[in-house]
Amino acid sequence: MKKPILALAALSLAIPATAAAQRYDHRYGLEPGAHDEVAWDFLEGITTEIGPRLAGTEAEARGRAWAMEWLIEHGFVNVADEPFMHNTWVRGEERARLIGAGAQPLVLTALGYSGATPADGITAEIVQFATVNDLREADPAEVAGKIVYIGNPMQATQDGSHYGMFGSPRRQGPGIAARKGAAGIIIRSIGTDNDRLPHTGATSWPDGVDPIPAAALSNPDADNVERLLERGETLTLEMVLTPQFLGMTQSGNVVGEIVGRDPSLPPVLLACHLDSWDNGTGAIDDASGCAIAASAALHAAEDGQPLRTIRVLFAGAEETGLWGSRAYSEAHADEEIGVGLESDFGAGLIWRLETNFTQSNPALFQQLADAVIPYGVLPAPQITATGGADLNIMRDQGGAIIDLQQDGSRYFDLHHTANDTLDKVDPGELAQNVAVWTAVTRVLANHRGSFLGAPIMLEN
After folding, report:
1. DSSP for 381-433, written as a single string
2. Computed from CA positions of residues 82, 85, 87, 88, in that sequence, does the dihedral angle turn out positive or negative?
3. Rounded to 5 degrees, what are φ and ψ at 405?
4. What is the distance between the terminal CA atoms of the chain, rounded to a whole angstrom?
5. How far is it, in rounded angstroms, from Cα 364 to Cα 370?
6. How far apart are CA 198 and CA 190, in angstroms?
7. How many helices (DSSP H) and strands (DSSP E) are in the chain?
8. Cα-to-chain-centroid distance, residue 133
9. Reduced to 3 states, what is the DSSP secondary structure of residue 31?
10. CB 406 within 8 A of CB 351
11. 58-89 burial string, b = 16+ CB within 10 Å, else e?
12. In this model, does residue 370 exceed pLDDT 80?
């Protein structure tokens, strides 16, 4: 690990600005070429020194140890690794090719929790479905013994809203195909790029259904399969996937705090997830989120000890099923958390502020809006925040939630691919995220009343 950063006020320090970062001027409250050294130190360090952090692996454990050391060196206290058990899956060999007419290799990657083929693979005819609903309605006789293919191309949006619906072939498709007797399933990657890099991601299996081989094709390969099928070709696929289920193994949630002047007040929770898929280095998903949360906590305390404790939660095993988020909520069920926010959408510019207390606590909402408007962030009083994946505890408690929505126009070009690497993070955009999070965290950590609007008793 690098030596700790001594100066925390670091919004105009020293790495070369990218072309995109040159856009920053007074409209965003940042200097041209803005750079947050604290956030970059975390992000660069964990992606360089640890790399991929697949849940349940030795690399994920090293990532937790690295993060704890970083937090301690930067002045956090009560740093801990809170263990939990989770179902562990690891990738194996993966390759595929069309045989017969149109013979050619295809680029794919196994979906998380995919079943395995025999060592020498499976060979079967491809049967195509445009959507997961078409597969759901299909006669099992159409599917039995074949390899299902689902198209369903995802489109890019600023808020990433297509991911929910267009992700259904990955989440539900394999289980439906298995129930209908399919030999395997391939889907078009749930992504918005045209790179020949497939997007992984977890799938799930209904109770009593044995996992079948399940993989995602890169988008160009999916295009090619569809063109061949449009020609009326009968396509036969040879596929080898050799992942393994390792059973229940230990992961953990890393936590650390900046203790407030009144520790009896419920803390402010800044969340992200520390694990990543194993094909990239998890820079945008989600090392950047942890860098944003940790550096914002530090910057928020630069003007003096805050009223409330600021706690960071680096959740574990998020990618394979929100294991850490659920475990944290269960472990802290008897502890009230004041307010929670999460960063898990890369490091694109924050453009919108949402809360779930806009109507019940309009004064606090306005204070937050005033804090973020200088950075180009639009308050959205008509939208109710629901929180990110690692804020189960806030939803379980019915607590206060803030969503700082990032520009996700390019996020799903990189999401869950080998392209998720440090060079894809714009230092200037990361700095804007940190500045917005710092402004919000400073307001929250020094707020005396209830976040949801009901009065609370305070000691004199």
Report:
1. EEEE----TT-HHHHHHT-EEEEEEE--TTHHHHTTSTT-SGGGS-HHHHHHH
2. positive
3. -75, 125
4. 43
5. 10
6. 9
7. 14, 16
8. 26
9. coil
10. yes
11. ebbbebbebbbebbeebebeebebbebebbbb
12. yes
Question: Residues, the chain, total?
Answer: 460
The Cα–Cα gap between 223 and 436 comes to 40
pLDDT per residue as tens digits for the range 394-409: 999 999 999 999 999 9
User: At 170, which helix (H) or strand (E)?
Assistant: helix 168-171
Q: Quick one: tokens of 349?
A: 């510019």
- CA torsion sign for 411, 414, 420, 422 is negative
Residue whose token pair is 């039995």? 144
Looking up tokens 């095993």, which residue turns up?
317
Per-residue model confidence as pLDDT tens digits over 197-238: 999 999 999 999 999 999 999 999 999 999 999 999 899 999
- Amino acid letter for position 124: A
Q: In this structure, what token pair is assigned to residue 353?
A: 């502020």
215, 109 Cβ separation under 8 angstroms? yes
CA nearest to 253, candidates 194, 184, 328: 328
Question: CA-to-CA distance for 352 and 406, rounded, in angstroms?
Answer: 7
